[in-house]
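REQUEST
  id: r-88c1
  op: predict_structure
  target: Anti-anti-sigma regulatory factor
  payload:
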Amino acid sequence: MIVVTSTNSRRSPRRRKVVRASKRFEKDPAASFERRLFRTCTAPSAHRVDVDLTGVTAPAADTMAMLLHARFVMRQRGGELRVIRCPDSLLPLVAACGLRDTVVTHQDEPDFAA
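RESPONSE
  id: r-88c1
  status: 200
  body:
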């Protein structure tokens, strides 16, 4: 799996960090994705962290636990965790875990589920 972190400030003056799962991984989230996610969430400049889950093909409880923990960390720091891309197969699990409020849509990205 390749994990890409990018910074984008075009939508707001605050820096936005994006963590992407850009290659498929099946059951368990890759350790490198988890490390990159939490490194990004705990960075001093992280006010908003966007997660792209297009590389996650199979719903897994540990993936949802990782996202719940990341959201908790961001809220404790006064920030926000958002899921900007989520496969349709994950949406029921995301909703059941109480993470539905983190899934957002953008008009300039019409190809992801919401």
